[in-house]
Amino acid sequence: MWCPNCESEKTRVVGTNKSYVVERYRMCGDCGYTFSTLESHRFDPKWSKNSEYSQQEADRISQRRVR
Q1: How much is the pTM?
Q2: Where is there biased composition of kind Basic and acidic residues (predicted)?
């Protein structure tokens, strides 16, 4: 994660709120600037079309591991 103030890559998470959206509070290691980021779920209709194939593929792989 880049700092929006100085563009440094030295950031760390100092706090987290979890809900339907995950909000992380971050601090830059270089300039000390604090900022927040949001993480949310996104649904794509293509995923439901491919879910049957994905389950078949997962079953095939797990059967191969059992042997």
Answers
A1: 0.58
A2: 57-67
